[in-house]
Design goal:
Blueprint lengths: L1 H24 L12 E5 L7 H12 L8 H9 L4 E9 L3 E8 L2 E5 L3 E4 L4 E3 L11 E3 L5 H15 L6 E6 L5 E5 L4 E5 L3 H19 L5 E3 L5 E5 L6 E4 L4
Parallel strand pairs: 1-3, 4-7, 7-8, 10-11
Antiparallel strand pairs: 2-3, 4-5, 5-6, 8-9, 9-10, 11-12, 12-13
């Protein structure tokens, strides 16, 4: 009997020590005594909406310093538009610290995503896209190929004072571009770099001769391409002719 009483006494003593700790850690008590009063944002934050960021972490901060669930808060912040990486920390006595690394946009991708400079695709989730980004599109697995052709095409057309506004790769492997002067260039699937090189070399001469905007260029010919001008019937243009 005495042994049983000793066990009960030790159990009660242990409960009196443990339960307050559990209560504090779980936020049952102590949220008002050890509140998180300060939200500190670290990093170069330009596109993340700080109002939305505060609203996102507030439900977690209400639990107080000891009970805040940093992992859950961090996952919630990472889901916000433009957030590439997030780290949520607490600093005694009342600071919730959020480190943000933003996506750096390289191009729009398809209808509703953005491609970052690190090659990551991320959804817009209603966020505004910076003006002037090119529009790229294609299968997700071909992101490096689309970016490579975009960069190469920009280099090819730059001597003529043009840039590339859009690049698309369809599921059949066919390429198409839109230049900064609104010319649509249908490249096809065969030897896209070689065809673009030939066309870019002749384009300044073609534009200077016609003195009209070129609407469309179809490069899917073995020895030339077909050009569409305003009010004209599309006709093949042999490679090397001017």
């Amino acid at each position: 009997m005495n042994a049983l009483l000793r066990i009960l006494a030790w159990t009660l003593a242990l409960a009196l020590v443990v339960l307050p700790v559990v209560a504090v850690v779980n936020g049952w008590v102590g949220a008002s005594r050890w509140p998180l009063r300060t939200l500190r944002i670290e990093g170069d934050v330009h596109r993340v909406d700080t109002t939305q960021l505060r609203a996102t972490v507030l439900p977690y901060a209400r639990a107080g310093f000891f009970a805040v669930r940093l992992g859950d808060a961090q996952e919630a912040v990472a889901r916000l538009p433009w957030v590439e990486r997030a780290e949520v920390r607490k600093r005694w006595p009342d600071v919730l610290e959020i480190g943000i690394v933003e996506h750096q946009p390289f191009a729009r991708w398809g209808a509703d995503r953005v491609l970052s400079r690190r090659g990551q695709l991320f959804p817009l989730r209603g966020a505004a896209v910076p003006a002037g980004l090119p529009l790229l599109d294609g299968p997700d697995a071909r992101v490096p190929d689309v970016v490579a052709l975009y960069n190469e095409a920009n280099t090819l057309f730059a001597p003529g004072g043009l840039s590339v506004r859009e690049v698309a790769l369809d599921r059949r492997g066919s390429w198409s571009l839109i230049l900064s002067n609104d010319t649509r260039v249908v490249v096809g699937s065969q030897e896209p770099q070689a065809r673009l090189t030939r066309f870019a070399r002749l384009l300044p001469q073609l534009l200077s001769q016609k003195q009209q905007p070129l609407l469309r260029a179809d490069l899917r010919y073995t020895n030339g391409f077909a050009l569409s001008w305003p009010g004209a019937v599309q006709a093949p243009h042999a490679q090397g002719q001017t």
